[in-house]
């Protein structure tokens, strides 16, 4: 059976999976959603004997129905290989009564690798299938982790160029160093004088700029997106929830069919939406617990039914979650509006115009599986310290937000359901914040001294991704105003 994708904002624009991957964003500014969520056609029991790659195939073939078996298996084999430092790809680690799903074993040590190591293959395969002759220009806004993962995925991939915009003062020192040392003749990294929302809005505006699209086409280019608005990002993320369930079952931690909860540290709402899709495919997930940092727009939304971005943007120690416009929430809004594109479009217009929208009580009632929570900076730091002192396990700041929210949820609800916490980054990526949480005395040390100290106390080898940047040269030093993002892109591509 063929599955099609349509825009969350209009009734037409029905496209195949490969076309949706190529376009990234629908032409009306909406996001592509599958016309229905497919079901898994293997049993939970069967999953226990499969590898990560085999499970990836079972999940992804249901969403990407216009890919042949050969094409999809090729993409999966290329993506989930020895770039990951464990053949489990996404191992589970039990600590203090929860299961941490470690999504940071890829080449840039954040969970973005889970999707961005396969996206270049999905995209170039899609281009071939659709006889695209233009060079594909990946336009990306990043709050820190997407940028590096996308750069690593696309560097020197034939037929592509990639440009990444990041908030100059809004990412961790390690994150910035990872990006500005990126090699590859087709890569370009630009710091903007603004925050992540500015970067994301600037990128979205370029996608919706018909004039620019024409100029690009004349010069032999077309845009695509590596952001989580691309369904080619979302679909690979469904896989690891299915994989996590299969390992819990295999290891006898849960019974066949037993419900689990998941906690996801959330920014753009991509990762938790993937968990929701996994649940919709038939995976026994109970609560989807959405964890925010001080930028708790989603927590407020789940509580009140009002999404309101009119508030101060707070820089936190979990920068990849410093977001006030969670783009992927639109896909959920569309769904709870009864797949009504017009109703969704009205809400999104209100968000663009006034920065706020309200959902109906009927819509809110459909969010019962979601639970919102948030953790401030002090609580996040205390969580890192407590878990380390109790178990020796060191988690990063984003994961700590989720762990803190889980603790709150458990004590408020007495819900003892087995729980998977999405562990979205290696602590080595946020070394200073992590080490300061454990002991503020560490603050006087240099970034790489801290790396070695973390390795010692956590008894974990320094990841390759960190070793690589220790002495790497800075290759990108462009900084631009938010208003000049388009100009910067055109200059780089030599368009007039
Ligand atoms: C991107 C990111 C998040 C947020 O994920 P979303 O899919 O945007 O909600 C959380 N933690 C880390 C480390 C990230 O890189």
Total helices: the number is 22
Bound molecules: pyridoxal-5'-phosphate
Helical/strand content category: alpha/beta
Low-confidence stretches: none
Structure characteristics:
496 residues, alpha/beta, six-stranded mixed β-sheet, five-stranded parallel β-sheet, 22 helices, binds pyridoxal-5'-phosphate
Give a verbal description of the structure:
It is a single chain. The chain is of the alpha/beta class and about 500 residues long. It is built from 22 helices and 15 strands. The protein has helices spanning about 15-25, 45, 50-65, 70-80, 110-115, 120-130, 145-155, 175-180, 195-205, 210-220, 230-250, 270-280, 295-305, 330-335, 340-355, 360-365, 375-390, 395-415, 430-440, 445-460, 465-470, 485-490, and strands at about 5, 30-35, 90-95, 100, 135-140, 160-165, 185-190, 220-225, 260-265, 285-290, 305-310, 355-360, 370-375, 420-425, 480. Strands 3-4-14-9-10-13 form a 6-stranded mixed β-sheet, with helices on both faces. A 5-stranded parallel β-sheet has the order 8-5-6-7-15, with helices on both faces. Strands 1-2 form a two-stranded antiparallel sheet. α11 (about 230-250) crosses α12. The site of pyridoxal-5'-phosphate (PLP) has 17 residues, from α12.
